[in-house]
Amino acid sequence: MNFFEENIHLMEGISGFEEAFQSIMKYKKFPKNTILHEAGTICDDFYIIISGIGRVFFYKEDKDITCHFAAENETMTAIDSFIQRKKSKYCVEALEELEVFKISYFDLENLLLINPEFERFVRLFMQHAYVELADRIGDLQLNTAHERYEILLKKSPYLFQRVAAKHIASFLGISPETLSRIRSK
Asked: Any idea of the CA torsion for 96, 97, 100, 104, to the nearest 10 degrees?
């Protein structure tokens, strides 16, 4: 279950919540391999995925390092830039053809200015994103490569059928060869 499914009930008592958010969501379709956000720029958009898979990654020493995957009913953005309004080191890419709802930073800010009672939902979303990030850091620091693989396989088994092994390996912090050895066990 994702954040939206878990928490949308919290806003049911607030009149006009669903309609207001729908009014700022724009349907977009992106071909596979499209870069939705380029590193070195300010990220103005936040994506809720309807169908497809995307990833957030950065470059280090001419290698791209995947730090986040998002699929149906999940979200993705260059969160550092989206929140802080600074240039990001992250890129956002469509790994499959993507259908998304796009929310611009400026539309979201305007909506929250007009409807401050919606801020609770955004705060809860940010808390959720923070907990996911803390879990990810803990995973990388506390678990072996094999344990990280098993956790990802249990949490998101669909990734192994839909995402290139090189992206999964970089997400796990291992080489493609190490991933191959772990998978063969």
From this structure: 90
